[in-house]
């Protein structure tokens, strides 16, 4: 049995295999196009809530656990939560802006958490552009210094970026920076609306020429949406594993099919993930929609289409033109 | 030569889950993913730093209709492969 077949099985048989957990929406940067709904309110998950949740995930054979935010490292109990994940045998990923990854924090991350990988965000190839997007002066220089330190400490990292009209002219420089650190760079071609439906981040969406520049420069594995954990491509009846093998959870325990598909399917304060995962009409609907999306794109492969983003933009997860110029569906 | 009194455990960088009748093993150090079949998954799930190979065999004999001698040979060979692959180590 190959890993690819296992992943296919998780999609087809609805086996929960990966979870992305947003620990907090607090952040030490202030990115212009941040997609988090900073006005969302609710009862935050406690350490005890996370312990129950993670134990349930492990008992469901979930292997991949991604801690995200906001900036997960500013959560006051980050290290306890992350260490819990390590102790329960998850393959841990930390999605961070990289701003605090230095000195003692980095040392603790390496020694106490031992993540599989840290994914950091790069917003440009120059301080002018990066700091313009993060709205924190000095964040670019600090990130580069932190990446040097991570490299020296042997912490595996990859770099994520979102193409915007501000950084699209620096795409070659961003790939050169990643190469300098020997780290893979993944560029998401799309700025997305905020999770509260606010479209203002789209004001800095990349231009058509910027997109062409990216697609002509980046290899296919380097240009893709930043969703959940990266898994091998599989040929399933479904378009993606959202709600079939993966979930996302916000800081207040709301469960979604995916970090990009913000359709609540339950809340961990009310029901365990085991209960939410089985016999859930909302998840069943998501799974059926994923099959419908796949049928609608048949002959064209998945391309860059994301049903979650489509639902946020149009109210429907079903593909409608125009899609990206990269999409094989065109 | 490993005997059946030996105790094995997954290496510290190894993460795995048994999914149905197979196991997915991730060796974090080398970012390598290994898939194991049903028997391999059963063996790996039994390696907990406490059970000896003998006790692992006892547990497997309750699951599979096979003679002890051939099972012992297969399991010891499999553990040797897992050790060479960096998945397990002797405790």
Keywords:
heterodimer, A: 330 residues, alpha/beta, nine-stranded mixed β-sheet, 11 helices, 35% helix, B: 91 residues, alpha+beta, two-stranded antiparallel ribbon, 3 helices, 5 strands
| Helicity of chain B, as a percent range | 40-55%
Kindly report the spatial arrangement of strands forming the biggest sheet of chain A: 6-5-4-3-2-1-7-8-9
Q: Are there runs of chain B of 5+ residues with pLDDT below 50, and where?
A: none
Strand residue content of chain A: 5-15%
**Mean of residue pLDDT values of chain B:** 91
Strand content of chain B: 25-35%
Q: Nearest-angstrom radius of gyration of chain A?
A: 19 Å
Helix/strand/pairing class of chain A, anyone?
alpha/beta
Secondary-structure element pattern of chain A, one letter each: HEHEHEHEHHEHEHEEEHHH
Order of helices and strands of chain B: EEEEHHHE
Oligomer: heterodimer
Class by SSE composition of chain B = alpha+beta
Let me know the largest β-sheet of chain B.
Answer: 3 strands, antiparallel
| Percentage of residues in helical conformation of chain A | 25-40%
What is the overall silhouette of chain A?
Answer: globular
The strand count of chain A comes to: 9
Distance between the termini of chain A: 34 Å
* Secondary structure tally: strands of chain B: 5
């Amino acid at each position: 049995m190959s890993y690819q077949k296992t992943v296919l099985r998780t999609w087809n048989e609805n086996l929960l295999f990966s979870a992305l957990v947003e620990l907090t929406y607090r952040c030490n940067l202030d990115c212009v196009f941040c997609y988090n709904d900073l006005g969302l309110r609710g009862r935050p998950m406690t350490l005890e809530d996370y312990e129950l949740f993670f134990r349930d995930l492990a008992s469901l054979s979930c292997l991949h656990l991604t801690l995200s935010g906001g900036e997960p490292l500013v959560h006051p109990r980050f290290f306890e939560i992350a260490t819990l994940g390590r102790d329960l045998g998850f393959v841990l990923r930390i999605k961070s802006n990289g701003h605090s990854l230095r000195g003692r924090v980095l040392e603790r991350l390496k020694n106490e958490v031992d993540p599989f990988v840290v994914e950091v965000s790069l917003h440009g190839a120059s301080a002018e552009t990066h700091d313009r997007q993060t709205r924190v002066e000095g964040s670019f220089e600090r990130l580069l210094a932190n990446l040097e330190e991570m490299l020296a400490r042997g912490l595996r990292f990859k770099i994520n970026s979102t193409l915007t009209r501000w950084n699209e002219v620096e795409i070659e420089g961003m790939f050169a920076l990643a190469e300098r650190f020997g780290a893979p760079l993944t560029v998401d071609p799309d700025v997305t609306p905020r999770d509260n439906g606010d479209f203002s981040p789209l004001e800095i969406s990349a231009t058509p020429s910027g997109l062409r520049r990216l697609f002509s420069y980046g290899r296919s594995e380097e240009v893709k949406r930043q969703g959940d954990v990266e898994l091998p491509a599989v040929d399933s009846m479904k378009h993606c594993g959202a709600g079939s093998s993966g979930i996302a959870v916000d800081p207040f325990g709301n469960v979604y099919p995916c970090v990009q598909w913000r359709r609540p399917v339950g809340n961990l304060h009310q029901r365990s993930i085991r209960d939410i995962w089985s016999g859930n009409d909302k998840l069943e609907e998501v799974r059926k929609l994923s099959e419908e999306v796949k049928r609608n794109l048949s002959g064209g492969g998945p391309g860059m289409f994301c049903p979650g983003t489509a639902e946020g933009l149009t109210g429907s997860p079903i593909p409608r033109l125009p899609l990206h110029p990269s999409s094989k569906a065109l | 030569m490993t005997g059946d009194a030996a105790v094995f455990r997954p290496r510290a960088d190894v993460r795995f889950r048994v999914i149905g009748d197979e196991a997915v093993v991730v060796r974090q150090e080398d970012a390598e993913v290994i898939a194991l079949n049903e028997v391999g998954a059963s063996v790996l799930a039994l390696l907990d730093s406490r059970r000896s190979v003998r006790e692992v065999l006892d547990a497997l004999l309750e699951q599979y209709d096979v003679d002890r001698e051939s099972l012992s040979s297969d399991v010891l060979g499999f553990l040797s492969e897992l050790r060479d692959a960096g998945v397990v180590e002797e405790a």
